[in-house]
Amino acid sequence: MSENFVRFDSTLVRVIDTFRYPRSEAIERIYIIRDLYGKVRIAVADTAEGKDDSQRSLKENANILHQRLGAHSYPPEEALLFLEADLIEELHRDAREIGNKVYWVDRLLTGRDWWTVNSGDPSTTTYTLHSIKGGVGRSTSAAILSWHLARRGENVLVVDLDLESPGISSAMLDRSSQPELGVVDWFVEDLVGQGGHVVERMVATPSWHSDLRGDVCVVPAHGAQPSEYLAKLGRVYMDTNERWTMRLQRMLDALRKAVEPTIVLLESRSGLHDIAAATVTDLNAHVMLFATDAESHWEDYGILFEHWRKQELAGVIRDRLSIVSGLTPDIDTEAYIARFREKSWVLFQDHLYDAIDSPDDRGGFAYDLLDHHAPHDPFVVNWTRGLAAGASLRTIEGSAVEQAYSSFLRRFDELLHVNRVGL
Question: How far is 67 from 242, CA to CA, in rounded Å?
Answer without folding.
Answer: 38
